[in-house]
Structures are given as structure tokens and as C-alpha cells.
Amino acid sequence: MDIIDAIRARKSIRGYKPDPVPKEMLREILETAIRSPSTMNTQPWEITVVTGEVLKNIRRGNIEMFNSGVKPHAEVAYKPFEGNYRQRQVDLAIQLFKLMGIAREDKEKRAEWTQRGFRFFDAPAGIILSVDRSLGELMAVMDIGAIAQTICLTALKYGLGTCINDQGIMFPEVVRKFTHIPDSKLMVICIAIGYPNWDFPANKLETSREPVENVVTWFGDA
Ligand SMILES: Cc1cc2nc3c(=O)[nH]c(=O)nc-3n(C[C@H](O)[C@H](O)[C@H](O)COP(=O)(O)O)c2cc1C
């Protein structure tokens, strides 16, 4: 697949077929993805792949936490969004809920949708990306961003879909319990990965982008 086609074809997949992803395939994807650039070639990524029983346990643990009212607490938290950023977040939710047939006032269905994220969107595999806490958080997180996108693009070649998300690791103690990722590692982000279920309504979403004119400032004549 041409690189431009891959970048344009990638989208967040929030519904998967149950078919497992062969370990060798995941290994090949990661072998390619570790060619990503990183600050001074520090390669800060520590990659934990979860499938099978371990993933089931994490799912169950996350849902128990959510249902018992524990506030999600990602280790790399973002501030509440304001202005344009908030609007884009709201627009995304409106589009997803419309596709999924979830009414604004339907608290039960909304909660079920949120739970889906905590379940790694029922994907057969998850990839957790962590960095050592001794590293400068900002640069390390940038490097994780680079490898995350590379994983998602590489996955396309194997017919796989992905969803970068923080919901899966919003209860870090659950993930640590079943993976033994030590406290000395900062869990930055995770990726749900598997074969897309193209009949799943949310997978039909085509998110919009601000036109390039609105986000680029040009200098010079080139
Ligand atoms: C750092 C990061 C965190 C994200 N967290 C979530 C998440 O927790 N739940 C979710 O459904 N999508 C999550 N997403 C996916 C974004 O919503 C998605 O990338 C965005 O809406 C653009 O859509 P697209 O990926 O289909 O192009 C996350 C994406 C990134 C890059």
C-alpha cells in the first residue's frame, strides 16, 4: 500500500472481529514500528502486548473499577478541553453516538459505550506503550506518539485496524496487576488492534480535519 494511501486510510476502529491476531504478525508489525524516530535515538518505548486471558482480566478489572465509581486516572492526563478543542471533542461524540444510535439522554447506552473503550473495544489484542519515569516526560511522550502512529500504519498492511486510546490504561493499577509493568514505568498510551468489523456502525465514521489553510502559516516564496 502506498504510504499516502495508508495515512489517508487509517482511522480509529472501535469494533473488531473476534479472530485472534497471530503473534508472528504482531511481532512483524512491531519489528517495523521500532524503526520510528526517537529523541537522540533513545528508543524509550517499552511495549507490552496483551491478548487472551491477560487481556480478558484487564477488561474485567477495568469494568469493575468503572462500575464501582472509581474515577479514571490515566498516568498521562490531559487538561479539560476548551474552545475549539472542546467543540471538536463534542462533535466527535455526537457523530459516534449518531452512528451508534445512542440518544443524548440515554445514560445506560452512553455508559455501555464508555465501557467499550475500557474493554479495548473488544479487540483481540492490545499494545501498551510505556516509558521509564527517569526520562523527560515530554520528549518521551513525543517518541511514543511517533511509534504509535507507525504501529497503526504498519497494521494496515496486514489488514488490521487499530484505535490509539487512553481508556484501556485509565485504571493503571488494573493493568499493572495483570502485566506486572512496574511503577517505575509510565504508561503513556495503548492501542487496540485486530481485524475490523466493518459492519460495526462506529467504524463508518470519517472524522473531519481543519483545512490546511487554517493550521499552516507560510513564510518565504517556495
Ligand atoms: C493520544 C490519543 C488518545 C486517544 N484516546 C481515545 C480514547 O480513549 N477513546 C477513543 O474512542 N478514541 C481515542 N482516540 C482516537 C481519537 O478519537 C481519534 O484519533 C480522532 O477522533 C481522529 O479520528 P481517526 O483516528 O479516525 O482519524 C485517541 C487518539 C489519540 C491520538
Description:
With 222 residues, the protein is α+β, with helices and mostly antiparallel strands. The chain is 44% helix and 13% strand. It has 8 helices and 4 strands. It has a 4-stranded antiparallel β-sheet with strand order 1-2-4-3. The two termini are 30 Å apart.
Features:
globular; single chain; binds flavin mononucleotide; alpha+beta; 222 residues
In short:
This protein is of the alpha+beta class. Helices cover 44% and strands 13% of the residues. The protein is built from eight helices and four strands.
Element layout with pairings:
Layout: H1 3-9, H2 23-33, E1 46-51, H3 52-67, H4 83-100, H5 107-118, E2 125-132, H6 137-157, E3 161-165, H7 172-179, E4 185-194, H8 212-215
Antiparallel strand pairs: 1-2, 2-4, 3-4
The bound ligands are: flavin mononucleotide
| Unreliable parts | none
Shape descriptor: globular
Q: List the total number of helices.
A: 8
Derived from helix and strand composition plus strand pairing, the structural class reads alpha+beta
- According to DSSP, the number of beta strands is 4
Helix content: 40-55%
Largest sheet properties: 4 strands, antiparallel
Give the helices and strands as they follow along the chain. HHEHHHEHEHEH
- Span from first to last CA? 30 Å
Using only CA atoms, what is the Rg?
Answer: 18 Å
Q: What is the arithmetic mean of pLDDT? A: 97
Strand proportion, as a percent range, falls in: 5-15%
Strands across the major sheet, in which order?
A: 1-2-4-3
